[in-house]
UniProtKB/TrEMBL annotation:
It comes from Actinoallomurus spadix. Residues 1-49 form the MbtH-like domain. Transmembrane segments: none annotated. It comes from the Bacteria. This is MbtH family NRPS accessory protein.
Length: 69
């Protein structure tokens, strides 16, 4: 495993958009840790696996509501 300085966390915002952030720093305002930690490459691979719909959550909800009408 990499040194602590080389560890990243996968972070997520309220719109369910993903990013990576240094594990030894608090995420920026509006972002929270998703639970995955590893090298940058490991975190990016995890994001590629789980973030299959790039649309923000608010847009997905609006589109679902529009399709129900």
């Amino acid at each position: 495993m990499a040194a602590d300085a080389d560890l990243y966390d996968v972070v997520l915002n309220d719109e369910e958009q993903y990013s990576v952030w240094w594990a030894d720093r608090e995420p920026p305002s509006g972002w929270r840790r998703e639970g995955t930690r590893g090298t940058r490459e490991e975190c990016l691979a995890h994001i590629a696996e789980v973030w299959t719909d790039m649309r923000p959550l608010s847009l997905r909800r609006r589109m679902e509501m529009d399709s129900e009408v």
